[in-house]
What we know:
Layout: H1 2-34, E1 38-49, E2 56-59, E3 61-73, E4 78-97, E5 103-123, E6 126-143, E7 146-147, E8 153-154, E9 162-163, E10 172-184, E11 187-199, H2 204-210, E12 214-225
Antiparallel strand pairs: 1-3, 1-12, 2-4, 3-4, 4-5, 5-6, 6-10, 7-8, 7-9, 10-11, 11-12
Amino acid sequence: MKNLVNRISLVGSASAFLLLFTLLVPRAQAQLSDQEARVGIKGGINLSNLYVNDVSDEKAKFGAHAGLWAKIPVAAVFAVQPELLYTTAGSKIGSYTNVQGSQQQINFSLGYLQLPVLASLTAGPVSIQAGPYVSYLLSAKVKNLRVDNNGVPTTGQDPSSTEVNRDNFNAIDYGLAGGIALDIKGFQLGARYNYGLRNVGQTFLAETVTNGSKNSVAQVFIAFGL
């Protein structure tokens, strides 16, 4: 009798699973069929920082990003979203004490060509995006800063002092990106955070000035499918 009950339970469970499978699979297929690979343009505002150590009055820097994006469906709620963007990074140091004891404001402005490849999990109109990125440094401008041969900031009056420029920074940056977006048929409105995993400084001079800092960029963006 007990075996009969177990068999009936097993058959009932299998039937329930088969019914659930029959109901859900067509819905998933329909949802997937409604999704198409999309490409488009996007842009937005950046708020970046370098988190330079031992410096007072450090300020985040406003910037921008713009470029192309694509969304490639893989499953009913899962897609891969690669992008190719021009994006800015950097920071403002409002109060930096040089060796002469005077205060200077230093402005780090970095421009990158960035390639994020994100996994996109979409539930209704909400998309959660996360994945790695790699960037190539196109430009680096550092205002109001010159350093001596030891990497110590000076007033720039020393004829042996040099400017910190692109050659002093790592050409390749990489890190992790994650965010959330309203995602409706090719239109996206969202926010994202990029966390750099590599020091921005390459040479001794840049490493001394930035103290092992990495890129940190918060973004608000809008994207349109073409």
